[in-house]
Structures are given as C-alpha cells and as structure tokens.
Amino acid sequence: MIERRGKKMFAERTGFIIWVSDLKAARNLEKYGTVHYISRRMHYVVMYVNAERAEDTMKNVKRLSYVRKIERSYRNEIKTEYASKTMDKTSYYGI
Predict the structure, then answer these.
(1) Which 3 state secondary structure label does DSSP give 57?
(2) Is 86 part of any domain?
(3) Is the pTM of this model over 0.85?
C-alpha cells in the first residue's frame, strides 16, 4: 500500500496464470507476489504482482523447474462499464 498525502493508495497490480507441474512446489510462488488461487485439478496458479516489477518477477519465475507456462491476465484491460443502446421498455409498457 502506498500512502500519498494522508490517503492510502493501492499499487497497480498485474495478474498472471502460471501453469505448474508440482503443486507442493507452487506454494513457493508466494515469495514473488500474492497467490490468489491454486487449482489442484488443472495445475495452475493465479497470482498478482506489482506492475512496476512484473517483467523482472516473471523472468525469475520462468526459471523455476516446476513452471511450465506463464500467461498474462487481461482482466485490467477489459471494459467493465456497459452502456445500454436499447430503449428502456418499462416506460413503453407502462410498468
């Protein structure tokens, strides 16, 4: 957490999906960032890291023997505000 002029600001985070071959060893990923979820069935880890150090962190994670593949999450880039272009039908039907 970053404090600026008395206000607490959260650091920009980037999400990664890391495919692993060993789930016990995948617990060690916590020292690189925040582990959000570990899938036991599909063998992947959802992890968040600081955006400023994301590239350096992922280079270090790629070197680990149990990491098969790393994918970047595009959740921050998806538009979450939706605009309705259709007319509201409640006023048309008198409800």
Answers:
(1) helix
(2) no
(3) no
Residue type, 13: R
pLDDT of residue 4: 59
DSSP assignment letter at 16: E
State the residue for tokens 């505000």: 81
Range of the domain at 9: 2-77
Tell me if 23 sits within 8 A of 35, measured CB to CB. no
Residue 82 falls inside a structural domain? no
| Per-residue pLDDT reduced to its tens digit, 38-82 | 999 999 999 999 999 999 999 999 999 999 999 998 887 788 777
Q: Note whether 16 and 72 are within 8 A (CB).
A: yes
The C-alpha atoms of residue 62 and residue 70 are separated, in whole angstroms, by: 7
The one-letter amino acid code at 17 reads I
Residues whose CB falls within 8 Å of the CB of residue 12, separated by 6 or more in sequence, listed in order: 50, 51, 52
CA distance 75 to 83: 19
Q: Domains in the chain: how many in total?
A: 1
